[in-house]
Known about the structure:
Radius of gyration: 30 Å
Structural class: mainly alpha
Order of helices and strands: HHHHHHEEHHHHEEHHHH
Distance between the termini: 102 Å
Strand order of the largest sheet: 1-2
Amino acid sequence: LIMLTPKETTKLVKTVNSLMILLVGVLLVLVGLVFYIAFKPDFSSSDDLELLAADEADADAKETVIRAMDDATDLWSAPSWSTIPNGEQGELIKYGKELIAHTAEFFGPNGSVKHLSNGLNCQNCHLEAGTKPWGNNYGSVAATYPKLRGRSGQVEGIYKRISDCFERSLNGVAPDSNSREMKAMASYILWLGKDQPKGKKVKGSGIYNLAFLDRPADPINGKEVYDAKCKVCHQENGEGVPNETNTAYTYPPLWGSLSYNKGAGLYRMSRFAGYVKANMPLGATYASPQLTDEEAWDVAAYVNTQDRPEKDLSGDWPDISKKRIDHPFGPYVDPFSEEQHKFGPFKVIDEFYKEYKKQKKNPKA
Length: 365
């Protein structure tokens, strides 16, 4: 027998314990490998592929939200209601807001002032009486009007801007420019933009500019989006939901005889897509969107292929080179079809006009 000293015995025990721990660790790794080989997931199955696709879609959605939140900083906001002046001017501003928010009560089929419109309110398109960031608001109107507009080929003031909305989005007739109502709406819009520097379009005003797709917008996909996320408010046939007194709409019609006509801004695909991306379905915002970019473009294609009132556009775009790339009616100076101008893809059209403008500036280049 080999006699060990107490110190040597302690050292031997520690060594044996270390070896045992190492051996147990190796055995656990081997057991884990055996179980992985025997039961590893088969990602070729349809269920697992769907899970992977869902993970990718979730990642894309998160990226969209992050991008939107980046765009949500330093946005225009309406001035405080407490800054409205006293006297007649203040009363005009207050009346103007009422006219924007409740247009149908004053100018609809049963309007108290005149029967000039289809029953929509201005704020059905210009959300929260034209104050919601990226909600087609009036934040930059005072700063950028009067201005030369390519659609008319003329310098337009705010009265003309309001008249266009009545004639196109409300599919009606503009109020008299000398009426108190026209002055009130103009006063309210000017007050909203009173703090903005002249000539500058502030961030968050108007409609969100959505990135172009690499493919045409698809109305078939858009119908699926509409049925899943829009129909509950705007109804099966896009007819909307009237309010309890039948004087306006709780949820406006998106097509049909009582909706906006083909001359309205929202009839352009990019305007409708950017609008719904930042605001729809109900509860969505630019910082918390509920639609992907693809869904927004596709639902725009579906809605804007439905029947709606016509509009005489023969006087629009006297210089056809100024037409917006998604204006769906020819003629054009470019070689692309009306169908591509309506549905896209728009990147190649956009590139054409960038080069076209460059050549016009420097014809010898």
